[in-house]
Specification:
Elements lengths: L4 E6 L3 E2 L3 E2 H6 L4 H7 L7 E2 L4 E2 L10 E11 L5 E3 L2 E7 L2 E10 L2 E5 L15 E3 L3 H7 L3 E5 L5
Antiparallel strand pairs: 1-2, 1-3, 1-6, 4-5, 6-7, 8-9, 8-12, 9-10, 10-11
Amino acid sequence: MKDTKFKFLIDDKIITASYTLNDIMSKGITEEDILCSIEDCSCSLNESCNHCECSPKYENSTITRRLLFSGLKDIDGVEIYDGAILEEDRLGIKLFYKVWLSSGGFVINQFQDDYKKDIEKINFYSPLADMQNKGWLINLKVVGNHYIKE
């Protein structure tokens, strides 16, 4: 059985590397560890305090959302997480889809005019668990994440 994987959204701007649930639980990874993992830090770890001694640029940042891995990958092998924006090139016409976690699992918008709406206002969506969708998804490319605020 595969371990559940997450990425974290920091201040609605930056997405971290992925972490497995096993890593988080067994290694006791904290929010500070996750924030430090996105730093361009070159100093050594202070073993007595168990943290970095530099002044992190994300010092006052917080994790604003946990993004769950769907278990699926796009055409380039990129993992598809909650919030992914997928692009389809259909004979030169670009179509976009949002992926989000609904109460029944991962879903994707069905209609193109829904792509521009907030997910709370999208009424028609399809589950990613459908075998037809899974085969179709491998033709799409992850191009962003709709939870990131510019």
